[in-house]
Amino acid sequence: MSIADKENIPLKTNRSLHQNLLESRSSTLALCAANMQFPTPPSPPAPALECEVQKATINLNPAEPMSKPKKAKGKMRPSQTRNGRNLCAHRWLKQIKTNGTTDEFGVYYMSLAENQRTAYDNEVTDLVAANKWDKTIGQGMMY
C-alpha cells in the first residue's frame, strides 16, 4: 500500500468512546442547568521541600508577590533631602536616640500626629528660605 493510498482511507473511530464523552458532557450540562452543585476537587499537596534554600524561594501564596528576605536595617542616616521627615530624623538622632535605627525612627515618625509632622514641614520651608539648613538643625525644638 502506498502513502497516497493511506491518505485516502477513512480513519476508524471508536463510536462508543465518542458517544460516552458526548453523554458525559450532556449530563454535566443538564446538571448545571438544574443548578446542581459539584464538590470542588481537593487541592494537590504542596511539593516536598528538599532544603532551606527552596523554602525561602518558593512562594506558596500566589496572591503575595515574591520579595527578598528582609535584613535588619542599620543606623538611621537621614538623606540630604530637605524635608520635614529628615529634619525630624536629625533632631531625633541628636536629642532622643543617638544610635537609633531606621526601623526605630520609622515607628517614632509614624506615631507623630499629623499636626506634628506638618510643623516639621513648615519649619523646613522657613529654614530653606532663610538658608539656615546647616549642622545646627539637630538642636531645634522637637514637636
Describe, in plain words, how this protein is organized in 3D:
By secondary structure, this protein is mainly α. 48% of the residues lie in helices and 0% in strands. It contains six helices and no strands. Helix 4 (84-96) packs across helix 6 (114-129). The radius of gyration is 34 Å and the shape is elongated. The model has no long low-confidence stretch (mean pLDDT 76).
Quick recap:
With 143 residues, this protein is mainly α.
Kindly state the number of beta strands. Answer: 0
Fraction in helix: 40-55%
Order of helices and strands, N to C?
HHHHHH
Please count the helical segments: 6
Structural class: mainly alpha
Shape summary: elongated
Mean pLDDT: 76
What percentage of amino acids are in beta strands?
under 5%
The description of the largest β-sheet is:
none
- Ends distance: 97 Å
Radius of gyration, whole Å: 34 Å
Q: Uncertain regions: pLDDT < 50 for 5+ in a row?
A: none
